[in-house]
Inverse folding.
C-alpha cells in the first residue's frame, strides 16, 4: 500500500491483525501504518468493525476496506473511491472481473450468491462477495453490520438496500497469489443461509 | 425389569455421581446442581416406576410409554440447546467487545505476546 495515493487527500492506513500468530503487527508498524491487534481471532466482520471504529475515531470522511492478502490492488482505490468523493454514491463495491485466474468453484459460488441476492433482495449486484468496499462516514451507521464472519459483505449490502443508499459497482482487477485458502463450500452455504435470514428479517 | 430400564438407571446414577463431583469441584453452581440433579432423579424415577406414568399416557394421546419419554426428552433437549445458544451468543458478543476495546485502546503500544492456544473462528480470512 503506497503512503499516498494519487488524488486522495489525507490518507490513513489501518491494518487489523485479527489474532494472527505471525509478525503481522510488527511488519505493519515497521512500514508506518497503524496496526490494531485483536488478541484472539474474532472473524472478518468483527475485524472490519474494529477498523471502521478506529477510522471514525480518527475523523476519516471515507472508509475503504480491502482484504489484506494482496488480492486487491491499491492502485484501483482512487478510481474506486471516485463515486463517493463526487457524492454520486454512498457505498462503492468492487466487482471482480471473471477471468480464468478466479477458481471455477468460486466463480460458480459468486454467480449463485449474486443470483440469490437478486431474487431475495430485488437488487442486481454483480459481485455480492467482493471484499473491496468503500463508504462515507455518514453511511456507516446505516450499513453497520452485526456479522462477525464472512456474512459481513451480504449484510452490508442488504442494510444499504434497506437504507436506500446509492451503490456504485466498480470493476476491479484481482490477483490470486497462490492456491485459494479463503472460504469453503460450507462458508458459501452459510452465507446463503444468512442472506435468506437477513432478507426475510426486518 | 427390562434391558432399557437397566441402561437408563445406570446412566441416571452415573450422571448423578458426575453432577455431584462437578459441584464438589466448583464447576457447577448450587442452582445448576439442583436443576441437573432433578433431571437425573426424574429419569431414575421414570426408569424405576414406569407404570406410574401410564395414567398420563391416555389424556396426552400418546400410545406407548416409550413415546412419551422420547417426546419429553426431545423437548428438554430443545430447551437446553436454545438456552445454550443464547448464553453462547452473549458470551461471543462480550468477548468481541472486550477484545475490540483492548485493541483500540492499545493502538501504538508495543505488541503483546500472542496466546499459544489460539482457536480460529469462521470468517478469519478473506472474502470468497
Amino acid at each position: 500500500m503506497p503512503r499516498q495515493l494519487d488524488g486522495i487527500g489525507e490518507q490513513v492506513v489501518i491494518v487489523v491483525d485479527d489474532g494472527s500468530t505471525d509478525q503481522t503487527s510488527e511488519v505493519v508498524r515497521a512500514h508506518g501504518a497503524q496496526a490494531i491487534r485483536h488478541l484472539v481471532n474474532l472473524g472478518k466482520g468483527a475485524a472490519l468493525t474494529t477498523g471502521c471504529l478506529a477510522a471514525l475515531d480518527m475523523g476519516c470522511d471515507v472508509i475503504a476496506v480491502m482484504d489484506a492478502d494482496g488480492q486487491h490492488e491499491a492502485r484501483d482505490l482512487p478510481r474506486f473511491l471516485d463515486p463517493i468523493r463526487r457524492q454520486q454514491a454512498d457505498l462503492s463495491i468492487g466487482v471482480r472481473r471473471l477471468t480464468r485466474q478466479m477458481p471455477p468453484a468460486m466463480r460458480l459460488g459468486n454467480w449463485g450468491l449474486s443470483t440469490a441476492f437478486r431474487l431475495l433482495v430485488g437488487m442486481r449486484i454483480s459481485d455480492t462477495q467482493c471484499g473491496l468496499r468503500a463508504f462515507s462516514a455518514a453511511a456507516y451507521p446505516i450499513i453497520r453490520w452485526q456479522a462477525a464472519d464472512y456474512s459481513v459483505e451480504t449484510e452490508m449490502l442488504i442494510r444499504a438496500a434497506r437504507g436506500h443508499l446509492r451503490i456504485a459497482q466498480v470493476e476491479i482487477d484481482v490477483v490470486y497469489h497462490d492456491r485459494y485458502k479463503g472460504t469453503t463450500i460450507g462458508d458459501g452455504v452459510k452465507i446463503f443461509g444468512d442472506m435468506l435470514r437477513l432478507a426475510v428479517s426486518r | 425389569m427390562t434391558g432399557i430400564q437397566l441402561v437408563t438407571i445406570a446412566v441416571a446414577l452415573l450422571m448423578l455421581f458426575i453432577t455431584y463431583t462437578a459441584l464438589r469441584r466448583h464447576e457447577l453452581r448450587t442452582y445448576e446442581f439442583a436443576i441437573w440433579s432433578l433431571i437425573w432423579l426424574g429419569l431414575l424415577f421414570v426408569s424405576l416406576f414406569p407404570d406410574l406414568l401410564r395414567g398420563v399416557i391416555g389424556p396426552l394421546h400418546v400410545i406407548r410409554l416409550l413415546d412419551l419419554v422420547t417426546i419429553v426428552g426431545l423437548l428438554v433437549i430443545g430447551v437446553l440447546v436454545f438456552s445454550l445458544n443464547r448464553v453462547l451468543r452473549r458470551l461471543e458478543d462480550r468477548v468481541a467487545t472486550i477484545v475490540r476495546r483492548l485493541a483500540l485502546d492499545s493502538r501504538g503500544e508495543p505488541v503483546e505476546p500472542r496466546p499459544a492456544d489460539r482457536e480460529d473462528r469462521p470468517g478469519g480470512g478473506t472474502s470468497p
